[in-house]
Each structure stands twice: as C-alpha cells, then as structure tokens.
Amino acid sequence: MMKQMTIYDIAKLANVSVATVSRVINSTAPVKDSTRKKIEALIQQYQFQPNAMARSLLKKETGIIGIIVPDLTNPFYTEVLAGAEQEALTTGHTFLLTNSVGDYQKESQYLSIMREKRVDGMIFLGGRINLKIGDEELDQELIQHASTIPTVLVNGTVKGNALTRVATDEYTGTCMAVQHLIECGHKQIGFLGGEMHMSTTSTKLRAFKKTMREAGLEVREEWILTDSFSIYSGRKQMEKLLQLADKPTAVMCVNDFVAIGAIKTAVDHELTIPDDMSIIGFDDIPLSHHFIPEITTVSQEANELGRTAIQVLQKLMNQEKVKKHTVIEPKLIVRKSSARLN
Amino acid sequence: MMKQMTIYDIAKLANVSVATVSRVINSTAPVKDSTRKKIEALIQQYQFQPNAMARSLLKKETGIIGIIVPDLTNPFYTEVLAGAEQEALTTGHTFLLTNSVGDYQKESQYLSIMREKRVDGMIFLGGRINLKIGDEELDQELIQHASTIPTVLVNGTVKGNALTRVATDEYTGTCMAVQHLIECGHKQIGFLGGEMHMSTTSTKLRAFKKTMREAGLEVREEWILTDSFSIYSGRKQMEKLLQLADKPTAVMCVNDFVAIGAIKTAVDHELTIPDDMSIIGFDDIPLSHHFIPEITTVSQEANELGRTAIQVLQKLMNQEKVKKHTVIEPKLIVRKSSARLN
C-alpha cells in the first residue's frame, strides 16, 4: 500500500496549522501570500489529493445522497434509481445506496448510518412509508432524522404528511386500468397481489372498487386475492383463482411482477392470454414490453419519478421553497395481455 | 434544522482538546479519570452521536465499501449485490454504490470519488475489466487506485492479472450448454448477442466453437450474430437470423436478456419454442424461471459470486492472504426453451 499524504502531513511540512492548509484548499479565508505559496508548492510536490472527508468536515458537506430502497431486485426501483442518478450527476452528488429488503429494523440501522455518514440529503423509496396504517414509532424516528437531514419520500408518506414527498397518482392510474377492462366489455373482474397493510395495495383496491361500482358492476370478494408483490405471489394467487368454479374474465394486478406470475400460471393451465382472460399489471417495468404476451400496464413514469425526487431534494438541500407534495401523472399502456371480451 | 453537537463543541464545553474527546470515544489511549468522566457526562447530556467521519478520520476507516456496477437494470448484477449485501452486513459495512452504465469516463470519475471518500475497499463489477484487449491507460488507472484501496474484480481482469479477482468459469459453463444442445441432437447451432470487444463474449465464443468442433460440427459464421447484451439486441439479432434461407435449429445466447429477446422475436414470427428452435441463455436471472417458455440457462451462481467477492475483500482489508483468483463453478439448468431435435 502506498502511503497517502494527509492534510496533517502537509501542515507539518509547511509548519502551519491544519486550519491554515484547509483555508488554502477551500479558499474559505485569506492566508498570507508566502504561506499560501509554500502550501501550494507542497500540495503540488506530493500530489496531495485533498481528502473529501477532511474537507467536508470543515464545509459540513459530504456530496453524498443517501438512498433507502426496499427491493433492488424489482426493476421498478432500478428504473427510479436510473432517473435519480442522471439528475444527481448534474450537481456531482453520489449515492450511498442501501437495500432494506422491506425490513423496518434494517431501515432504522440504515437511517443511523446515513446520519453517521452525514449525508447531505436522503431519498426514502419505500418500506415503512408505505404502511396503510403508519406505525407511530417508526414514523417518529424518520421524522426525527428528517429534521437534521433534508429528506424526500417517494410514493409514500408518514403520519400527518409531515415530510416532503413525490408520488405517482396510483389511485387515478388504477381507475384508468379498470376502466379500460370495462370498456373492453368485461364485467367480471378480479384483483391480484399486494400486501393488505401496504398503502399501495389499499389505494389501488379503493380505486378498483370505486370504478367497478360506478360502472354498476359487482365487486366479488372471492376474486380479490392479495398476498405480496412478487412473481411467486402472482403465480400462487392465480392458482387459487383458477380453482374457483366461477372465474373472472379479467384481473387487475397490483404490479407487473404479479401480472407476470399470473400470466405464467394461467398459461401453465392451458389458458390463452388474453383470449381466455385479460390480465393487467402496474409499473411498466421494461420487461412488460418483452413478455409473451406483452403486458398491458400503467406506467408510473419511474425515470421521471426518480429525476423529480432528486430535483425536489436539491431544492431542500439549498433551503429553497418546495411543494410538500409533487404528483406524477400515470399513463395507461395498452398492449397484448388485455382484449375485448369474446 | 436541529443543531447537531460536534466533537468540537464537546471539546470546548469540557475545556479539553478534540484529541482528548476522541481518545475517550474511541478508547485509543488512557485519559485522566476526572477528565474522562466530565466528557462522558457531556456526551450523555447532549446525546452526542460521534460523527462517523470524524471518528474514521482518526481510525482511518470509513466502514464503506465502494461498488462500481455497469448496469443496475440487469438483474444479474442486482442478484450479485444481494449476495454481497448479506455478507457485508456481517461486518457492518455499507455500500457506496455507483452505476457506470459501462462508460469508462464515468468509471474514472467514480474511482476518484471512491478515493476521495476513502472507502475501506472496492468491488469492481464490470466495465473496463471486461475488455477483451485491455486498455493500457484504463488498466493502469485502476491498478493505481487498487494500490491504495483493497480491490476485488468480479468476472473481469486487468493486464497481467495484476489484481485479485472472483469469477464464474464462463468458459466451462458455455461448453456445458452447447454440449446439452448437441446431446439433444442439434447439429446446426448459432450464437447470439454480446459485444465482440468484451471478454465475456470472446470467452463464450471460444468455448462455443471448441465444443462444436470437438463434436465434429461445423461453425457457421453467418449464424454468429454478436451485438450487445440487451433484450433489444436479442430481438434484433433473431430478426436477422430468421431472414436467412438456411437457419440453425438451436441458438446459444450470450446471456438471459438476449435469450428473452430472441424468444420474443421468434414467437412474434410464429415459431414455437422449443419445438421449432431451441434457445439457451446464460446467467439464470430469476425471470428465466418465469418466462414463457421457461429458459434453459447456465447459472452463474450470482448470489454466491457476490458473497464470495465480499469474503475475499474482507480478507484483503484485514491484510490476510488471499488467492489471486477464486473460481465459482457454473451449473447447467435445463428448462423448457430447449428440447430434442424433432
């Protein structure tokens, strides 16, 4: 290992204090001309690279944005991250990215780490902020951290909407998807996937039920099969649905992963999609365009969501005024997993 | 914003030097009993949270492992990361994760950032280290960084194999896949996808050609259609392949993404997979198990690869002896996109 020069070494060689070297590096205060030249010569001679940490200790900035993601294996989140990264490059920020796997204890651990690492700002991409009924203690912990670290929540909130958030309008998106099925002539429609205690599930279910009722259609509780957000969940719930004597002609899925699983199991059971059943997803992950059949879905505009979250965070970090709640409009993308009822 | 106490504030209140407070926090040297008690009381009173940066400046450790990933939207990498994260939690390290999108200039930028942030170690997951003919300057830059930061390369190398690496045996994996097709009775086999200047492509192509020749089969250059690693690439190259008068009965794809695209386009052209053509991928991304048809592939053991990379890095960081080259054995996973030749 090569020995790296530190600010302390430079100070010693120049026979000045660390603060003086820091002043020269950061131009934060005037330094006597001869002293400055001596320090600059040493920096040159030893090719000293100012330590970002030492510098940020004085400037109180780290150039790091902390990000807490609940599931890096879900392409929706990596698309949001791709958008966020594009935007963060414009201000030279890098990401301290952590994967909580939806575990609230890990989230707490990562929140402490973010504070310890003195990140300049934080994006919270899901987990406790997606609870239908928020947990008082978990919310308080997050609000507490957000009181010292500028924080933006994506597609979630805390008690009293106390924190700044950017979100897709999932309610409207679901209404659009269900309306599309109704316009295709479907009257018997089910809903698959999602955990009931997560707000994304309850929001989508509310929109589903309201759209059905407004069209004068019956909501059949036995066709509402929630579970989780994974491909496996879609497979398992479609398996249950297909065992019913009376089946729906169409299903709305909580996300594209569940739709992929649902289609897979339906096809395994010799059904043709969409002829025998229309199946719709939510998110528009890149794969929904390449699956067989291509999946009708609602685009969350993941890339824009990521870029917007960083834009809002940058304003917060600069102590500019921001809207407490920025809404991204969803888009219905009609592909080949939905069709007119025969 | 709440005012956070710093180590400087505590030192001032205790009327001692910052170094003394640091000694108490880190137990690095004895401090007079009365002084220690005074400092501990202040830490207690103000609920002072020792700043990780300040502490690590003294300990010269940051607790951060820097990771450079070429493509976060490819599930292979997120699976490697999931394994790496599990392992890193055992030593309390967190990841400074950066996405280079395969751009060498961005890689250089991120390497500088890693050095600036004084990461404890670094995992390089692809990009310049995958070049078939390494670039002298890019290699030198990386070797230079690795001389001050313990570094592990995953599935790649630099000139003279100068750095520590962990890799799947892609050559053997490809031989297994091609052998499987040959055993299914296929004699006319093509190869799709991958960039020719990347070593993963040339390694797999070498294995492909060698297995074909050893079986006495002809390698047809017009059936070798390289391009890139994306789903789109698979679609485009299968489109070209299907325009040929004489087509292969089976194709080996450089990865699962290319296989997904190839199957999608073949099906769009009314082919039935595997009856009309066998198509094999590489990587075993989770989706290959849920695609229609389920994809025969070679598992890179992504999770194990990630865990192993961190284990090797931890040894490097502890200045323990490590093998310069750790090999992970691939596994052939036969599913439904390949079948006996009719």
From TrEMBL, chains A, B:
One Pfam family here: LacI
Keyword presence, Ligase: no
Limits of the HTH lacI-type domain: 5-59
Entry keywords, A to Z: DNA-binding, Transcription, Transcription regulation
UniProt keyword Isomerase present: no
MF terms in GO: DNA-binding transcription factor activity; transcription cis-regulatory region binding
Cross-referenced InterPro entries: HTH_LacI, LacI/GalR-like_sensor, Lambda_DNA-bd_dom_sf, Peripla_BP_I
UniProt-recorded name of the protein: Ribose operon repressor RbsR
Natural source organism: Paenibacillus montaniterrae
Upper taxonomic lineage: Bacteria, Bacillati, Bacillota, Bacilli, Bacillales
